[in-house]
Design brief:
The protein is of the alpha/beta class. The chain contains 7 helices and 10 strands. It binds adenosine-5'-diphosphate and magnesium ion.
């Protein structure tokens, strides 16, 4: 269980806090979805949960234990927005192994299997993969570390309809083993698999009901 209590992030350079008294609870094997417009603080929230940004105030717990940034770096696996832009391996093997030469073939295959890429040759260049495959490779890079919490920043952004569907069904599958926290400005298909939803506006997080958001999304656009 992930539990955030009154989390605030207020760098001195900004007149108002970027994250304001955030409370959030996420159970294991659940997917939480935070929906907010650009600039609302979504990436900052994920970076805080990944231990990359130190909160100004508030607490983060995993089960009963309060976590430091160092704990969070071990617990969480953050997949950045457009992760393919940061690929630096020249092969799939290099990309997955980056910084961890000790990983065995078995672990690497396991991670690639989990994201449906085990059929590809390990010497394939990450840049030659389709957009959807690149996103899945970025997920494998985190999964191999066995994080408890997967943090995904705009995982469907820039993908076409069919790749988005594939990615969403992969996330639905990963939920069986991990807690997932996904942030997006465009919930779309992600709503279908979310167990918990929140909206984020100007750093304020409010719970939202996934079912009513789904119903709203299914209403036809008014014709003008
Ligand atoms: N370290 C920082 N110092 C000052 N402002 C920041 C910092 N990090 C993010 N911001 C600002 O905080 C707001 C939220 O940013 P971000 O978390 O990237 O939003 P989102 O991911 O929802 O688009 C933006 O207005 C951004 O410019
Ligand atoms: Mg962002």
């Amino acid at each position: 269980m992930l539990y955030l209590k009154d989390l605030v992030y207020h760098p001195t350079a900004t007149p108002t806090p970027i994250l304001k008294q955030i409370d959030l609870e996420l159970a294991p094997q659940q997917m939480g979805l935070v929906i907010g417009p650009s600039g609302s603080g979504k990436s900052t929230l994920l970076e805080t949960l990944a231990g990359l940004t130190e909160p100004t105030a508030g607490q983060i717990f995993w089960r009963e234990q309060e976590l430091t940034s160092l704990h969070l770096q071990q617990l969480g696996g953050l997949v950045f927005q457009f992760p393919e832009r940061h690929f630096c391996g020249s092969t799939i093997l290099e990309e997955v192994r980056l910084g961890h030469p000790e990983w065995k073939a078995e672990q690497i295959n396991g991670a690639l299997e989990a994201v449906g890429l085990a059929h590809l040759a390990l010497h394939t260049s990450p840049h030659s993969l389709s957009g959807g495959q690149q996103r899945r490779l970025a997920l494998a890079v985190q999964l191999i570390r066995q994080p408890h919490l997967l943090l995904l920043d705009e995982p469907t952004a820039g993908l076409d309809w069919s790749m988005r569907r594939q990615l969403v069904s992969l996330l639905a599958k990963l939920k069986a083993d991990w807690s997932l926290l996904v942030v997006t400005h465009d919930a779309g298909e992600l709503l279908a698999i979310a167990d918990r939803c929140w909206t984020l506006n100007h750093g304020e997080l409010h719970p939202a009901d996934p079912q009513s958001l789904r119903a709203k999304a299914q209403q036809p656009e008014p014709v003008s």
